[in-house]
Automatic annotation (TrEMBL):
<feature type="compositionally biased region" description="Basic residues">
    <location>
        <begin position="28"/>
        <end position="38"/>
    </location>
</feature>
<dbReference type="GO" id="GO:0005789">
    <property type="term" value="C:endoplasmic reticulum membrane"/>
</dbReference>
<feature type="region of interest" description="Disordered">
    <location>
        <begin position="1"/>
        <end position="42"/>
    </location>
</feature>
<keyword id="KW-0326">Glycosidase</keyword>
<dbReference type="GO" id="GO:0009311">
    <property type="term" value="P:oligosaccharide metabolic process"/>
</dbReference>
<dbReference type="GO" id="GO:0006487">
    <property type="term" value="P:protein N-linked glycosylation"/>
</dbReference>
<keyword id="KW-0378">Hydrolase</keyword>
<feature type="domain" description="Glycosyl hydrolase family 63 C-terminal">
    <location>
        <begin position="352"/>
        <end position="850"/>
    </location>
</feature>
<keyword id="KW-0812">Transmembrane</keyword>
<feature type="compositionally biased region" description="Basic and acidic residues">
    <location>
        <begin position="1"/>
        <end position="12"/>
    </location>
</feature>
<dbReference type="GO" id="GO:0004573">
    <property type="term" value="F:Glc3Man9GlcNAc2 oligosaccharide glucosidase activity"/>
</dbReference>
<comment type="similarity">
    <text>Belongs to the glycosyl hydrolase 63 family.</text>
</comment>
<dbReference type="InterPro" id="IPR012341">
    <property type="entry name" value="6hp_glycosidase-like_sf"/>
</dbReference>
<dbReference type="InterPro" id="IPR004888">
    <property type="entry name" value="Glycoside_hydrolase_63"/>
</dbReference>
<dbReference type="InterPro" id="IPR031335">
    <property type="entry name" value="Glyco_hydro_63_C"/>
</dbReference>
<dbReference type="InterPro" id="IPR031631">
    <property type="entry name" value="Glyco_hydro_63N"/>
</dbReference>
<feature type="domain" description="Glycosyl hydrolase family 63 N-terminal">
    <location>
        <begin position="109"/>
        <end position="272"/>
    </location>
</feature>
Amino acid sequence: MASAMRDRRGAKAWDSGEDSNPSSAPRRSSRRPPRPPKRKEPCCCKCSKRTAAFWLVFVAALVCVVLAGLFVYGKQWIAVAPKPRALTPFPGKLVSDLPQFQGKHRERMFWGTYRSTLYLGIRARTPKSLLAGLMWLGVKDNRYSLRHTCEEGDKLTRYAWVHHDGATYGRQEIVDQGLGITTSFLKHQDSESGYGGDWAVRVQVVEKMRPKEREQIKTPNRQVSLFFYIADEGGSALQISSDTFGDGRFAAGTANEIGGWELHIKGQENTSVSFVGLSRQHTHNLTELVWQVLATQAQTHSRIELPNSAEKSSNIGVIQITGVAPLSFDAVFVSGTQKHNVGAGERVMKMSGSDLTKKLSEREEMFEKRFQSTFKLQDKVKGEKEIEVGRVALSNLLGSIGYFYGQSLIAIPPEYQDSKATGEDVWKYWPAALYTAVPSRSFFPRGFLWDEGFHQLLVSRWDRKMSKEIIAHWFDLLNIDGWIPREQILGDEARSKVPDQFVKQHTSNANPPALFMAIHKLATAYEDEKALGITNEEDEVFFERLYPRLEAWFQWFNTSQTGKVPSSYYWHGRNAQTKRELNPTTLMSGLDDYPRASHPTDDERHLDLRCWMALAAKSLAKIASIVGAPNEVYASTAAQLTNLELLNKLHYDAESGRYYDYGLHTEAVKLQQRNFVDPQTGYMQSEMERVVLKPPVLGWVPHYGYNSLFPMLMDILPLDSLMFENQLQLLHNESNLWTNFGLRSLATTSSLYMERNTEHDAPYWRGPVWMNINYLVLSALDRCSKVEGQHSSRCNEMYSRLRANLIRNVVKRYHESGYLWEQYDNANKGKGKGSHPFTGWTSLILLIMGDLY
């Protein structure tokens, strides 16, 4: 506003022909004779024209002033205009700000392998962090390429964390075209360390080829090029040294919280070393930046090596180590180097060479003891092959935990479409951090709301505080309405892995409240300990801070996802207009293409969502009791949602004995090719389009599969009821879901079993075996087997058979392929399918091995 006022004052002075400072105006000469007086003339047309011109200029100037004022006022109004509710955080203290997640805990967890999308990436849990990572030169499609981000297209034989404790230690094994690469990560707190302590990475490369593979390699002593880098995400300049090996440091600098720091690279002889320093604003595209440097070097010097130069104010330093396998190097990061004004040489020695070897061996032993005491697999599985898979499942889940910071992009709701008139295409959520596990480092390296509920079933068994902190971060993303974006794509690094059309989150879309499973387990553990006289004050404080957010989340579901009929729910947001999908998807349910009503309407009733809400109500009643809040409303809601008579009225088909969705549905649909002329090119084109052969009617959606199991999974069916007995019979029928590899997701009798949903989308939840639902089924069978009754022995038998089938197949496929998979193909001998490595909810195989539910 002040600058605008100055502009207006300046314009006024200029228009009047006066200087803004009157004292500086030139005076007339006193020696100049006075002018004769002007003779008055009668008013003429010239005078009228001058008067009109004056008023025209005056009005124009006035309009300009008014418009300028409106512009400035408008900018101020926009700045102070109230935020849309969707962008307003929940009005309460952040759960992640609790003291139990600060202090020593925060410092201990400060550094980690928190860059989930990379083969090896290290950062701190702070928005603008130092970033470190590993690259190496590989071959893709007979051309050199840089390995950096986890890509299925790299076709690595395997890569997996074989040990990882989620906090201070990890060891990963990678096999890439006959090369075995081992990366080890270790943190250490020294008395002279800065905040967060010191850390070291060891990279070892050996040949790992079968005899036939060795024969195919034309140059058996092929060179290996490794790249290690450090970058300042905030743009601060690094000091990059040309003395890049031996005892010299490679890079140094200062950073918030940790103070001065140094990175030392210590390696072996008979290797060549080169480096580059780059100054760039963005760090999410480091692969491309390094590749561009190498490509330029190859063109100008015929060498694929870095140029040994650094740009002014470089905030990225990359060192290249080239040699013949076997080779190795240690990268040692020491913090707080300015604190005592002494060098870091002694600390570097303690974190490299034989000292590092000893420390890594000690941490491995500690991990193994903790793993054995936590899961006790020795007497529960056949042998070391099974234990190895369990160890890898845990390590990969913990090793994939990431720290993200940024703003979710929100699709503008229909009621706010006027926002687009101002040029806004999306809204931005508030800047926030998220500490979370991810389903897959290669394909889904970001947070997914319903997946996280399953992840925390395992994480909480390993480290309760870690699990609580992850849950805290998720609920800190809750807005004032009680909505949480279901997919968290925070920051440029995460966004670079997602196509633009999938980035926007919709405020009307839900996701299964699966975090209530983990929260319910934590609450039950607290109650069990309290019954033994053990009071965990940190848990009490955690539940007290979390409880209002749980209430808001629950209330959001009850206001946004309810159906027409009382006590019914449906997933809002299905596309009723699409003609390209055989059955409109329900992405918000998590069961993407699982068959629902063929014609989406607000008459729908979705069985799985109603059962999720029953779990949520039960959990809230339990936590309300813990924190001393009234729980009658939630207990009453839970009683209503678990009322068998009401459930059967809404979802039970007495004729088949199955639970179904309800909606406007017809089975008479198919995908049919449609030919048309493209108006832009004039060429004939074709596409698959849905054709409805028979009008839909309101009724059951007769597709038996995972969705039908939810009353059993959420412990709603009384164990002595006819409905529970029916579910056991249906479950054990091989024409339905039972296979030798686990329970398939859709019965073979379904009209959409293994059917494509579009010409491009293969069946997803229409047949393959998924670990998360199989785990819930085993949990239900385990509960039944431990309660004396008419079905306990049958449940025990089914439990044992299903558990054995799952373990046998997952272990077999891991040792065959080197990976844990997203799903397992019941139609192809149980082979792994989908993204890999997928150590999100597939890691539940460890809890299955340990009989832990």
